[in-house]
Specification:
mainly alpha, 0% strand, 209 residues, 2 domains
């Protein structure tokens, strides 16, 4: 008895094997299998063609060596092409795994509609405030506020470096600092930046002190 078309079509789908992986072609079942997806049966000639395509697929998939893989691919592609011609006779759900939902894929991957050039970063420094006690105010001052004071020449880069260097030295035993403090290098850079600011050359709020 020949296999019914629904089972044969499922067995031809990629990655699905309906029989044991033995070298010999499988024997057809002794009893007919029910048709689950369609009320239209194929003719005996059409069923025979499907059995032939299925046998070629299983035989090549389990017995051919690697150097014969091109032959298997040819038979397999031929079987899929032949199977596609009978899609209209069966429930489309059989072929769901072979189709692509364009709407779903569109939600997952979308081509950019605008340029991905990064936007220019802009900011405004706060207005410099008066320092009644610089040694206390600098301790907890935000960096943009400190940069505004340096730009307005209320405090110098050297003053900021000397102040925080003194704090690091004071708390070094408590913090267990293991890095080497490059105080001379930092002070030399601060002197250079102060000279640039005096000549109206400002490098921005994050100048490396």
């Amino acid at each position: 008895m020949l296999l019914k078309p629904a089972l044969l079509l499922v067995s031809l789908l990629p990655g699905v094997r309906a029989f044991a992986t033995t070298a010999s072609p499988p024997s057809p079942p002794s009893a007919p299998l029910p048709v689950c997806y369609s009320e239209n049966d194929l003719s005996e000639a059409e069923q025979a063609t499907m059995v032939e395509q299925q046998t070629l697929y299983l035989y090549n998939d389990t017995t051919l060596p690697e150097d014969k893989s091109n032959i298997f691919n040819t038979y397999f592609a031929s079987g899929l092409k032949w199977m596609d011609s009978y899609k209209d006779k069966f429930d489309p759900e059989i072929f769901t795994m072979q189709t692509v939902d364009s709407l779903t894929m569109g939600n997952v991957f979308q081509l950019p509609t605008t340029s991905n050039k990064p936007e220019d970063v802009t900011f405004e420094l706060p207005a410099p405030s008066e320092l009644t006690a610089p040694e206390y105010s600098l301790k907890y001052m935000p960096i943009l506020d400190m940069a505004a004071l340096i730009k307005a020449k209320v405090v110098s880069c050297v003053h900021v470096v000397d102040y925080f260097t003194a704090r690091l030295v004071e708390f070094e035993p408590y913090l267990a600092i293991t890095s080497l403090l490059l105080t001379e290098t930092a002070r030399a850079k601060a002197l250079a930046y102060d000279a640039m600011i005096a000549n109206s050359t400002y490098l921005g709020p994050l100048i490396p002190l």
